[in-house]
User: Fold Lrp/AsnC family transcriptional regulator from Amphritea balenae.
Amino acid sequence: MKLDVTDRKILKLLQQDGRLSNAEIAEQVALSPSPCLRRLRRLEQEGIIEGYQTQLNRQKIDLGMTVFVQIKMHDHHAASVKNFEQAIHGMDAVITASTVSGSADYLLEVVASDLEDYDRVVSKLQELKMVREIESNFALRRVKTAAPLPLKRLSD
Amino acid sequence: MKLDVTDRKILKLLQQDGRLSNAEIAEQVALSPSPCLRRLRRLEQEGIIEGYQTQLNRQKIDLGMTVFVQIKMHDHHAASVKNFEQAIHGMDAVITASTVSGSADYLLEVVASDLEDYDRVVSKLQELKMVREIESNFALRRVKTAAPLPLKRLSD
DNA sequence: GATGAAAGTTTCGTCCT
DNA sequence: AGGACGAAACTTTCATC
Assistant:
């Protein structure tokens, strides 16, 4: 599915402010509200827009600690993978998780209030039998946070 | 600043859908629109809500490749740190960056269309004189993506 | 794609409890 | 604090060009 310059402008604006009204978007992309809304709905229906989210300040909701956790598994049998990923989905302190290339199998991003809180998360991970090794890398300072995805400027 | 149960309900709802209208939020937290809007504005003004964002499908905007990049620096002099972080801010393929504990100094999340595109990013990083070592870990599959932050259920 | 009209919502200030 | 009212703005659909 193709995105023209106007679509990309709309997406760029919405990444910066997900609550922009259609009227405001229309004005900024130099369209009248009707066609602008048609584009917006199309972007939503095609799944290009997956959803709208609210960014919270982690410090202020007492989740000031972010830890990147590398997990190595004992094996990669289907059952182990399934059980591990199920466990991950059930742990709400784990906010992102990916399988990765390299020496680790999974990279998780975990939030916690403090070390004690974090320790509880690690303990849960250690209890999982398919987990062989856990390495915790604490985020000391966030240099860049949730920057917008760069939309290519080319090709109409 | 204290968050009561209603505040947390509002934040939970808004994390799930950042475009909820005040009227909809009010209904779901069993408040009338007026006090609900007052709470929302307070959450925004106190900085607990940092902003509203739109989630895009990376595949569909041709950014299907995500790479976690660990960077080791030659030194940690103020000038090196400043220049490096400035460079990071200027690279829009780098969507998140943190300093981390452990053997690496920085952990970056980089998006790209494909390997060729990613290679351009790495080349730019390699050109930075304060960078000593770069390790790329490719995200093979995302198991959990941008899950909402877990708000404690306790303490009114 | 633009425009305009009309009905329904939403926001937000004000006033009341 | 929460709730109610009202004015202005916004959304959305529809018909039309």
